[in-house]
Amino acid sequence: MGGLKDELLKAIWHAFTALDLDHSGKVSKSQLKVLSHNLCTVLKVPHDPVALEEHFRDDDEGPVSNQGYMPYLNKFILEKVQDNFDKIEFNRMCWTLCVKKNLTKSPLLITEEDAFKVWVIFNFLSEDKYPLIIVPEEIEYLLKKLTEVMGGGWQQEQFEHYKINFDDSKDGLSVWELIELIGNGQFSKGMDRQTVSMAINEVFNELILDVLKQGYMMKKGHKRKNWTERWFVLKPNIISYYVSEDLKDKKGDILLDENCCVESLPDKDGKKCLFLIKCFDKTFEISASDKKKKQEWIQAIHSTIHLLKLGSPPPHKEARQRRKELRKKLLAEQEELERQMKELQAANENKQQELETVRKKLEEAASRAAEEEKKRLQTQVELQARFSTELEREKLVRQQMEEQVAQKASELEQYLQRVRELEDMYLKLQEALEDERQARQDEETVRKLQARLLEEESSKRADLEKWHLEQQQAIQATEAEKQGLENERGAKERALQEAMAQLEQLGRERKQALEQYEGVKKKLEMATSKTKSWKDKVAQHEGLIRLIEPGSKNPHLITNWGPAAFTQAELEEREKSWKGKKSTE
Predict the structure, then answer these.
(1) Which of 187, 417, 535, 559 has the fewest CB atoms within 10 Å, i.e. is most exposed?
(2) What stretch or stretches form a coiled coil here (predicted)?
(3) Averages of pLDDT over each 10 residues, the chain, 585 residues
(4) For residue 284, what are the contacts with CB-CB under 8 A and spacing of at least 6?
(5) d(CA 380, CA 302)
(6) Do the beta carbons of residue 211 and residue 128 sit within 8 Å?
(7) pTM
(8) If we measure between CA atoms, which residue out of 441, 448, 429, 428 comes closest to residue 548?
(9) DSSP E strands, 210-356
């Protein structure tokens, strides 16, 4: 009820101020009687003329102020108002009282009926303080909605420029200034009068008449079951349907509550885009013009039922309340910020005073510092003279030190030269030792080769001697076997010749090995001569250098004819072969 009272007071305030012809803030009692009677009539409240006389008995000498009229208005009219009156008729009565006095005479793009609707919208969006004004945020909201309905694009930059030129002495626009702003077409350029009027009417229906959605649809009858086109108007708790959009011939209502629901239906009986509204005692089948309209209506009705379940106001009223609360919050924050700024300013002034005191103290300290600086300069001159003397003395000492450093550097260079010579000598000694080591390795290789050849020769000589002894024994043993032995002897002779040839070959190889040995020995003697000059320098390291001497030879196998050409193993092998042939014969 408090919200309804606030809305009614705004329209009544316009009527009261219109009756104040000399702008004194007071209205005569005769005019207030007429106003009160008209208010009681349109608000459907019983009128009591005696109560007005009784209330203003002490004010017979003059007119009544707004503050004086308010107690009567609250007690005898507004507190008795019920939500059963025609709000449009109430607003039109108040509009009629104030329009002639305040509406501009200059030509406007909108009609007087459109101006009346803008006036009602202003009362809805204006702030709850007097004199009534509409703040720039609400002006922007209204102009945006009008531009959206007209199908135009919102010019934010143009509105920002308009706000910059806004009068800083005012917090907003009065209703007559708002009507002139919309009527002069500043924010609806390119739009004709009919388009602007249509936009104002649609915004009026949404914000004032709580029309959430409207449009033509087909409805199925309950008795004759025929389909008829109707103009449907959806409001927060009711869907009304009319013969046409002029709303003159109303055909019925669909009462909505939290128990209602809306459902989509499949196409049937040649009708498409069907949906069903279920209420407590009736159901309504409706056909939209297309699927998009069907979905929009289902969504709108579903949202309305959901708001009824939550007990929430219509979306535009809830949005208006949120905007007001936001502005109050911002205002409180701004006031808090201003308070903090004042505190900061006071603190700043205190700091300025403290800084002034500090500045004076600094000036005194600066004068004292100047005197101390003068004394310091005098002391500095004395110290400078003393330092000059010490500096000369230091230069002499430094010169002596530089001479000593140069001498030490020369000695260091000589020492480094000796170190480099010793390093070169060490490298050469290493090379000589490496040559000696290589010569020793070559000698050892040749010695092993010679020993192997001598062993082979000894083995072959032993085999040959064994075969010769066996041959002599066989010749002496029997004469009868002479012929066989003679043949065998021939074979043995041939084998002997072959063995002699091998022996000669081994002799040649032995001679080559001796020649290689002599070459290695000469190399060793040359390496020994190279290293001989270093023996005196490394005498303290005796034992590191040793002369290479020929190795010992294995004793040769001696036969009756001299040194054997075969080894003992070769002779034993040939003896086994000879015995085997003999046994087979």
Answers:
(1) 417
(2) 316-530
(3) 80 87 79 86 83 66 66 84 87 91 81 92 88 88 88 82 72 88 81 88 89 92 88 93 90 91 90 91 91 93 91 85 88 90 90 90 89 88 87 87 88 88 88 86 85 84 84 74 77 82 83 81 78 60 45 52 63 78 72
(4) 219, 220, 254, 276, 277
(5) 96
(6) no
(7) 0.57
(8) 441
(9) 213-220, 227-235, 238-242, 250-255, 261-265, 274-278, 283-287
- CA-nearest of 329, 338, 325, 265 to 298 is 265
Residue pointed to by tokens 């010569």: 439
Bridge partner list, 218: 229, 287
- The CA-atom distances, in angstroms, between 453 and each of 250, 364, 391, 560 are 143, 119, 92, 21
CB 150 within 8 A of CB 196: yes
Tens of pLDDT along 362-383?
Answer: 988 998 888 888 888 888 888 8
Q: 219-253 b/e with 16+ CB inside 10 Å = b?
A: bbeeeeeebeebbbbbbbbebbbbeeeeeeeeeee
Tokens of 485: 């032995």
Closest listed residue to residue 87, CA positions, set 205, 175, 212, 198: 205
Q: Is the dihedral of CA 88, 123, 104, 93 positive or negative?
A: positive
d(CA 158, CA 171): 19
Q: Pick the closest to residue 549 from 530, 528, 529 (CA basis).
A: 528
Q: Name the nearest CA neighbour of 97 among 80, 119, 75, 64.
A: 119
Digit-coded pLDDT (tens) for 299-341: 999 999 999 999 888 888 888 888 888 888 988 998 899 999 9
Rounded Cα–Cα distance for residues 541 and 544 (Å): 6
- Cα separation, 512 vs 519, in Å, equals 11
Q: How far is CA 339 from CA 342, 343, 571, in A?
A: 5, 6, 133
DSSP annotation of 166: S
What ranges make up the beta strands (E) of 360-509?
none
C-alpha–C-alpha distance, residues 32 and 71, integer Å = 13
**Dihedral angle, C-alpha 491, 494, 496, 502, nearest 10 °:** -140
pLDDT number for residue 547: 43
Coil, helix or strand for 452? helix
Q: Assess contact for 122 and 177: CB atoms under 8 A.
A: no
| Phi, psi dihedrals of residue 24, rounded to the nearest 5° | -95, -10
Q: How far apart are the first and last CA of the chain?
A: 155
Q: Can you give the length of the chain in residues? A: 585
Report in angstroms the alpha-carbon separations of 10 from 139, 140, 178, 179. 18, 21, 16, 16
Pick the closest to residue 233 from 223, 244, 221 (CA basis).
244
Q: Residue 320: which of 476, 137, 489 has the closest Cα?
A: 137
How far apart, in whole angstroms, are the C-alpha atoms of residue 16 and residue 201? 27
Q: Which CATH architecture has domain 213-313?
A: Roll (2.30)
